């Protein structure tokens, strides 16, 4: 049988099962209703730039990994061989998909898309903060309820 150690404050051992001590109330949760009245466009621009930059890096890595996996299992060579057979005329030639979809070309195209994405997302988020500030001056902003356990 285990012996319970008395509490330092009350001298009474805490009851089993985690119930509160007699005479003490359950832990309170303090709540505060706050309103987001304004979003600083400069801070929105900085955060949106960093997040969209991270998204661009993730996109580059994902495209490179996907390309390497597809190349390793032979998708490009199989499709390229089929394309050459279909597009080959009487004079020879044909469309070589494998040389068209090389890794440097795919990553270059992905980098262009990622840069455009960073610029657009940053601009749209900053514009969105200006629109939010204008609309919150009319309707009061977004109300939030924050809670803290004591």
UniProtKB/TrEMBL annotation:
Pfam families: DUF3566. Residues 1-30 are annotated as: Disordered. Keywords: Membrane, Transmembrane, Transmembrane helix. Residues 1-10 have a biased composition (Polar residues). The keyword Transmembrane helix applies. Residues 30-148 form the DUF3566 domain. The chain crosses the membrane at residues 47-70, 106-132. Signal peptide: none annotated. Residues 13-26 have a biased composition (Low complexity). This is DUF3566 domain-containing protein.
């Amino acid at each position: 049988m285990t012996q319970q150690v008395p509490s330092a404050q009350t001298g009474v051992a805490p009851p089993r099962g985690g119930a509160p001590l007699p005479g003490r109330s359950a832990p309170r949760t303090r709540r505060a209703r706050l309103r987001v009245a304004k979003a600083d466009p400069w801070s929105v621009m900085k955060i949106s730039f960093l997040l969209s930059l991270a998204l661009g890096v993730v996109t580059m890595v994902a495209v490179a990994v996907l390309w390497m996996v597809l190349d390793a299992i032979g998708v490009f060579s199989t499709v390229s061989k089929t394309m050459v057979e279909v597009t080959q005329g009487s004079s020879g030639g044909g469309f070589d998909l494998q040389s068209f979809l090389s890794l440097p070309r795919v990553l270059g195209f992905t980098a262009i898309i990622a840069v455009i994405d960073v610029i657009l997302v940053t601009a749209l988020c900053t514009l969105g903060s200006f629109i939010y500030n204008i609309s919150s001056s009319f309707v009061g902003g977004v109300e939030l309820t924050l809670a803290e356990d004591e």
